Amino acid sequence: MKHWKLIAVATLLMTPALSSPLFGEEKTGWVKTLDMIFNVTQSSYSDNWAGGEQGNVTWIAQANGIFEKQFSPRFNSKTTIKLAFGQTHTQYEDKNTETGASTHKWAKPVKSTDKIDIESVGRFTLDWFVDPYTAVRFESQFLDASAEHLKRYLNPKLITLSTGFASKIWHRPEKDELISRLGLAIRELISEDIPDPDIDKTETNTATDIGLESVTDFSIVFNERVGLLSKLSLFKALFNSKKDDLRGLPEEDYWKAIDVNLENTLTVSVAKYLQVSLYTQLLYDKEIDLGGRFKETLSLGLTYKML
What we know:
Layout: H1 4-13, E1 31-43, E2 56-72, E3 75-95, E4 102-106, E5 110-123, E6 131-140, E7 143-144, E8 152-153, E9 157-172, E10 176-193, E11 203-221, E12 226-240, H2 243-246, E13 259-271, E14 274-284, E15 293-305
């Protein structure tokens, strides 16, 4: 089990080898898209402003990319990258206890958005009813700011290695696509935890589970300005490395519940470099919270298509 991460790395590195004559001649070139998006909203107030309003600045930077290639008639590689980071700077009123005068100052920024999601899928296109596949997914965040006295980067990290069968249910070249896959997955969660808040030191903890994974990717282009991307990920654990530690506790069977991650991104290009984006995410993980968690982001900002 401890060596499976080496297999994951090997999976990521094996793609170029599959363009060898053993798998046939190269069929197509790379299909690449990479969008850079930057959104910012700002408001501020003078020291003598009445009414209790507080100024703020919120900015979000995003990068979304898809890199796909049919290396040969028998092998397709697709890597999807989603990166985002943003902060909110808030103005507050600071009163002088001696003079009674007040000034508006800016507090330390707080994180508003943070996401790293990179997935690489290799699909063997053998003209069967379903295609065998193998996939590696890495999920994390740039900055773990849950503890003010100790910043942790790329924490926690979730690595998923899966293999199984995929089916391209619907496809229109360079436009719409519906692909669903089902397979066996191994997930490892690596976290740098703080055992003692009075000491600036972390300890590494890992948790591994094995189970069944279902992932459905849907994309549709309504016209040259409007598009929708959706991703539904389901995971049913059959084994958990921490199950013995949970025995006898009320939450001892929580790991057996199905984890759900549903993401939707609707984009509308209102001008060449101006885009409106609506992102929603619904998460359910019983080990984290008994209820579902929902996130919604509506943004208007500059976008630049690098590829």
